[in-house]
Amino acid sequence: MPDLAAPLVEWYRANARDLPWRQPEFGAWGVLVSEFMLQQTPVYRVIPHLEAWLARWPTPTDLAAAAPADAVRQWANLGYPRRALWLHRAAVEIRDRHDGVVPSDIDALLALTGIGDYTARAVAVFAYGDRHPVVDTNTRRVLARAIEGRSQPGPPSRRDLAAMNAILPEDRTTAAVVNAAAMELGATVCTARIPRCDVCPLSDRCAWLAVGRPDTGDERRKQAPYEGSDRQARGAVLRTLRDAANHAVPLADVVPDWPDALQRDRAIDSLIADGLAEADDGMLRLPA
């Protein structure tokens, strides 16, 4: 196993982006909210929404006291709006189970709504400084290239955590930096399409670069195009509800000009099933 930790730490301390959740005073709630928002959403889109969210609800208890509809509306156009409902439910659970304090224990974090293995580990490591491997898409790409000599990682598996754990130093503080550095390297240098190997701190020990950067295939699932998709229809319906007075619209007036009426109706049904909308008395509204 090549020593990846030392060059990652040195590179990160000189090149890390100045992001809000990396500030020492940001706190566990801010880290948790940022992780919810960063799922499948670029950093530049998240930052203004994150700042607005934390200004409105600076603690889990503040969010728990708000209506779910307020959370969905504040989520605005971040996409995947179920995350807003999940975050609201998690805030209620933090208030009721943990006296309003985001827990540090991974099992306690996993028991909260909407929190999976990655988010639980990210909060434990980046908010509380515990030593755990944290693996996102960017980290997996760095590990696949540097250690396995693959151009892209395979499907996510527990092996990713084992591979990341193997390069972590025992010191908790340094281990947290290595976790962050691997993510940052994948996001800014070891990118999916145009990796900048000439400025990579791992170039002298990267297995993929050593064998000439072969294309070893890409087994990752491809996301369907957004244009014309059910996701686009769901977004149009939610946008109508967010913008409406009292967040309620007669069902007949919900994006009536949508080109595919069956798709629109399917979107409405799926939003109701997900708890993102409610229908009664001929009206569609955000959840109470």
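The above is record 1. Record 2 follows with the same two-line structure.
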Amino acid sequence: MIKPQTLQVIKATVPVLKTHGEALTRLFYQRMFENNPEVKAYFNQAHQHSGSQQQALATAICAYAENIDNPEALSAAVELIAQKHASLGIKPEHYPIVGQNLLLAIKELLGDDASDDIIDAWAEAYQALAEIFIEREKQIYTEHEVQHGWQGFKQFEVIRREKSSEVITSFYLQPADGQPLAAHQAGQYITVKLKADGPEHTMRQYSLSNPPGKDYYRISVKRETGSEKPQPDGLVSNFLHDKVKPGDLLWLAPPCGEFTLQSPVDKPVVMIAGGVGITPLLSMLHQHLTDRSQRVTLIQATINGQTRAFKQELDRLEKQYSEFDCHVRYSQPSDEDKITDNHDSEGLIDAALINSLDLTADFYLCGPPAMMRHCLTLLNNAGVTSEQIHLEAFGPALPLAS
């Protein structure tokens, strides 16, 4: 139980966090990687380079400070982060490292204003939060052991790879020990651990794009190229595209994630996918079509036919299931892309397209943050409630609402 005077001190730091939060998190990561380089493998350095990780952490720290006396308001964020931590193998011994370096960063940022009261309050507040995460992650690790038969990482063999679009390659993976796979929850992701550059392991999380209950996992990986130099190319995505072939072994952690198909079985569903955001939604689509009879609509936003993923698979599903409609929205269609009035269209997702949908449905969105912010605005303007909207953001959990 956090002491009342601690709550007061933490609340009083909120204005500073809102103004200087990203400066604090930049200092934090800098100090932690200098003092404890052994934790660097748990972080995507591309997100460090872009600043998105620092922004996400600053937002999380500020949200914690604002709601420290109302932990229920943070339950969804805690679950999201705990699932991420469990997928990476974060353990109780990692939390003191974070705490020590966070306090060092606070002291450095505040300078002479870093009173003992402030440092002691943040030490107590951090410990309380760490205990919440440690307990929830312990539960997740136990669930992995019970549901999937393993926790941590074990080896999987690449049994097949295939081109899913000009920029996305799919990898089919089976346990190297020959043990059967329990069904994942549609929408979940797994963590891949490999040595892509030098002797150290690197970890990345990829959504499972296959139907639940298969004897394999399928991850569908977009080749990430630095769109704005000096933004680096994706280390792991390019390694997978260029180097990994059938017969190779990869280390995988059990499926994690809270972005799953949660709608009542009698409710229609709309899925909106941007680019490689189709991957968790495709797994959800398979589950919906197998288990439910309500209508499901997929809006697939992509640049053109070359970048559109899973065309053959989606065409087959649309022919097989009368309750499934797929609409492709091309932002820059090529001459080869055939645009029809009712099946495909050109441009960005707009109000006319959103308003043509069943607005009583549940909506599932996955794509680039800018696209999802845009779609959220359109859905809100159309009267869709927050309870109807479910989101997955790849990378750090950045705020999507403006």
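Residues 168 and 222 are 4 Å apart (CA to CA).
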